[in-house]
Amino acid sequence: MRKLVVLLIVFIALYSCKSEIKDNSDQFKQGVFEIPAGEGYSKTIITRKDSLQIEEYDKIVSVSNDSTSGEKRIKHIDTLYIKWKNNFFYTLRMKSPKKELDKDPIFVQITKLKENSYDFSAKIGYSKYKTDGTIYKVK
């Protein structure tokens, strides 16, 4: 009887240590998302549907005249193709590239999942340029 109790305690202790990783990354494949404002740009609203990602943001440009200086906001809308390799890695390509740099794919890796957001690391093409950020799900 004593062995049974010890065995039961060991089993309960091991079972309680069981780590359950919840993969909720599928929720980020479609919907409306937001990237908070950063230096030189306003917040970005992202809409994902099927294989398209539409990004809406204001580019902030410094404007100066002879006597005044200020900022001007220029509205931009970019359409990109999104291709998911798995739940944690996807590639973006501009639908209508305007510059040479826009022709390069953007490789995005999800580095940390949260309930309604994820942290990511993005790299443009095969360059050394890399950026990190957080995307929040709005809808």
Characterise this structure.
The chain is mainly beta and about 140 residues long. Strands 1-2-3-4-5-6-7-8 form an 8-stranded antiparallel barrel. The mean pLDDT is about 85. It has a single domain, classed as Lipocalin (Beta Barrel), CATH 2.40.128. The protein is about 10% helix and about 50% strand. It has 1 helix and 8 strands, in the order H-E-E-E-E-E-E-E-E. The longest helix has 15 residues, at about 1-15.
Provide tags for this entry.
Lipocalin; 52% strand
Gyration radius over CA: 22 Å
Strand order of the biggest β-sheet = 1-2-3-4-5-6-7-8
* General shape: elongated
By oligomeric state, this entry counts as single chain
Q: How would a crystallographer describe the biggest sheet?
A: 8 strands, antiparallel, barrel
E-strand count: 8
Give the mean pLDDT: 84
CATH topology: Lipocalin
Report the β-strand fraction as a percent range.
Answer: over 45%
- Number of helical elements: 1
What distance lies between the first and last C-alpha atoms, to the nearest angstrom?
Answer: 56 Å
CATH C-level class is: Mainly Beta
Q: Secondary-structure element order, as H and E?
A: HEEEEEEEE
Low-pLDDT runs:
none
The tally of structural domains comes to 1
Query: What is the correct CATH architecture?
Result: Beta Barrel
Helix content: 10-25%
Query: Pairing-aware structural class of the strands and helices?
Result: mainly beta
Task: Provide the fold topology.
Layout: H1 2-16, E1 31-35, E2 44-49, E3 52-64, E4 69-86, E5 89-94, E6 106-113, E7 117-124, E8 130-137
Antiparallel strand pairs: 1-2, 1-8, 2-3, 3-4, 4-5, 5-6, 6-7, 7-8
